[in-house]
UniProtKB/TrEMBL annotation:
Cofactor: a divalent metal cation
Family: Belongs to the YicC/YloC family.
Protein name as catalogued: YicC family protein
Claim: Nucleotide-binding is one of the keywords in the record: no
PANTHER family the record matches: UPF0701 PROTEIN YICC (PTHR30636)
GO molecular function terms listed in the Swiss-Prot or TrEMBL record: hydrolase activity; RNA endonuclease activity
Endoribonuclease YicC-like N-terminal domain location: 3-158
Domain of life: Bacteria
Length: 295
C-alpha cells in the first residue's frame, strides 16, 4: 500500500436529464479528518452521504467539497406576474406625469422583485433519487481523482523521506566509527580529565578518582543513542514499505530521532562527534517537515 500526501485538488462534472453539475474537492494538511461542504441550493439533503463518501476514502486531511448545479431552461421557464407588472407600470407613469421622473424601462421593471419569477421544479421521489445518485457518482469520481493526486505526491514525498532516513543512517554510522570513540582515545581523554581533577583537588583518594573516571566514561558513551538511532531507521523504512496511513507514526519517529540527536550532542566530548550531531539535527528537522504532509 502506497503512502498519500494530504494535499490535492480534483474536479468532476456530469449531466443528468437536463441538470448539469460539478464537484470541486480540495485537500490540505490536518491533524485528523475534517470535511466541509458547500452545496448548491436545494441539495442540502446530500450533506450526510457526501461526508460519508469522503470519510470512506480518506483518513486524514482537511477536505472541502463544492457542488455547483445548473438546470436547462426547459426545466424552469421564467413566469411574468402580469397583474403586478401592470400595477408597477401604472405607478411609474403617474410618477412621470406628476414629478417629471424618467420613464420606466422594460428591463428596469422586469428586474423588480416579484415581477419575474422562476418557479421551482417539482420532482417526484424517483426522479429526485436518480438525480441524487448521479450527483453522488460524480463526487465519487472527484474523490478518486483526488486520491490519485494525493498518491502521486505521496510517492514523491516517500522518496524524499527515504533519502533523509538514509542520510540519518550514514551519520549514525559516522558517529559510531568516529576515531574519538576508540578505546585508546577514550583512555587518553579520561586521563587528561582525571589529571585536571587531581590538580584542582588536593588529597583526592584513589577510590574517588576511580569513581570520577567511571562517571566521565559513562557520560561520554553514545552507544545507547547509536543503537536507538539504528532501530528508528529500521522502523521508518518499515513504515514506508508498509504504506497506508503512516504520517502520525513517522512524525513520532521524527521526534525520537530529534531526541537522540540532541542527547548525542550533549554527550559528545569530541568536536567531530558534535559536528555529526549537529548535522543529524538539521536532517531530522527536514524530515519532520516532510512527514507533516503525509496522511
Amino acid at each position: 500500500m502506497a503512502v498519500q500526501s494530504m494535499t490535492g485538488f480534483a474536479r468532476a462534472a456530469a449531466e443528468h436529464e437536463g441538470t448539469a453539475f460539478a464537484w470541486e474537492v480540495r485537500s490540505v494538511n490536518g491533524r485528523s479528518l475534517e470535511t466541509r461542504l458547500r452545496l448548491a441550493p436545494g441539495f442540502e439533503r446530500l450533506e450526510m452521504p457526501a461526508k460519508q463518501a469522503m470519510q470512506r476514502k480518506f483518513a486524514r486531511g482537511n477536505l472541502q467539497a463544492t457542488l455547483s448545479v445548473s438546470r436547462s431552461g426547459s426545466l424552469a421557464q421564467p413566469v411574468v406576474n402580469e397583474a403586478f407588472l401592470r400595477d408597477v407600470a401604472g405607478l411609474a407613469r403617474r410618477l412621470e406625469e406628476q414629478f417629471g421622473c424618467r420613464p420606466a424601462s422594460a428591463d428596469g421593471l422586469l428586474a423588480l422583485r416579484g415581477v419575474l419569477e422562476v418557479p421551482e421544479t417539482v420532482e417526484d421521489e424517483d426522479v429526485r433519487k436518480a438525480l441524487d445518485t448521479a450527483v453522488l457518482g460524480a463526487l465519487d469520481a472527484a474523490l478518486a481523482d483526488l486520491e490519485a493526486a494525493r498518491l502521486a505526491e505521496g510517492a514523491v514525498l516517500a522518496d524524499v523521506i527515504a533519502d533523509q532516513v538514509s542520510t540519518i543512517e550514514k551519520l549514525t554510522r559516522d558517529a559510531e566509527a568516529d576515531p574519538s570513540r576508540e578505546p585508546a582515545a577514550i583512555r587518553e581523554r579520561i586521563a587528561m580529565q582525571v589529571k585536571l581533577i587531581t590538580e584542582s583537588a588536593n588529597g583526592l583518594d584513589e577510590q574517588r578518582l576511580n569513581q570520577e573516571a567511571a562517571l566521565l566514561a559513562t557520560r561520554a558513551d553514545i552507544r545507547e543513542e547509536i543503537d536507538r538511532l539504528k532501530a528508528h531507521v529500521a522502523a521508518a523504512r518499515q513504515l514506508l514499505a508498509d504504506g497506508g496511513v503512516v504520517g502520525r507514526k513517522l512524525d513520532f519517529l521524527a521526534q525520537e530521532f530529534n531526541r537522540e540527536s540532541n542527547t548525542l550532542c550533549s554527550k559528545s566530548n569530541a568536536t567531530s562527534v558534535t559536528s555529526i550531531g549537529l548535522e543529524l539535527k538539521a536532517v531530522v528537522d527536514q524530515l519532520r517537515e516532510q512527514v507533516q504532509n503525509l496522511e
